[in-house]
Amino acid sequence: MTVPLKMTGAGAVVTGAGSGIGRAAALAFARRGARVVVSDLDLDRAGAVAAEITAAGGAAHALRADVTREADLAALRDACLERFGRVDLVMNNVGVLALGAPESLPDEAWQRVLDINLMSIARSNRVFLPLLLAQRSGHVVNTASASGLLAYGFDRLPYVASKHAVVGLSEALAIYLGPHGIGVTCVCPSGVMTNIVEQITVYGQMTSSPRAPAHPVVPAETVGELAAEAVSDGRFLVLTVPEIHDELVLRAGDLEAYLRARIAEQTA
Fold it and tell me: Where are the membrane-spanning stretches (predicted)?
């Protein structure tokens, strides 16, 4: 349990909100009364989502943002303050993948994934946390992944590393920010129907299909609703299917046996 947030009248900023989980979360926040700055690297997509929100009777503003630039995140903060008078909710949602055998991944693959998936949150913390701490209220949502809890993705090591870091960062933030009246939610989806394939870079020769857990695939809209409910309820962890929880329990019970079983699956 972290700190719940009443979304009616809240000012919200969502990155990567032009499609997928970000779009779904922005719409879910707006349905609960939040006024949303919808940001994306693709301004047309951000504008389309903002138009959906306003057409449904909500308030939204679209802005292009590159999360590798702290100045762009500061512009989102300033736009939310100017348009809606306050910032209460920040969702850090941008993510990319680099696929390839571990021995084939160059530094550039690691640097790009970590810069976007992890360092964007560090930049967001510098931009938004002083404001939330000063007002002693608010909520931060970080989109991680089941890959941040279960390291099945040996063909996407930078992604796995970045999402494990996001989970740990989010947990530490929850402990730090909770006493200041600020909640933290970490979203860890497994299979989700999004267009993240657009953000995949392949290095070397892929010898097999990308590894994925045997978990059900859910619509992005489901994840958006789960994220919004967690913010309203003050919950930290969002899992998209119960199988993630079950596997975490299995792994925690006997890590050695769990790893032996995963290794055996690769040689079967």
Answer: none
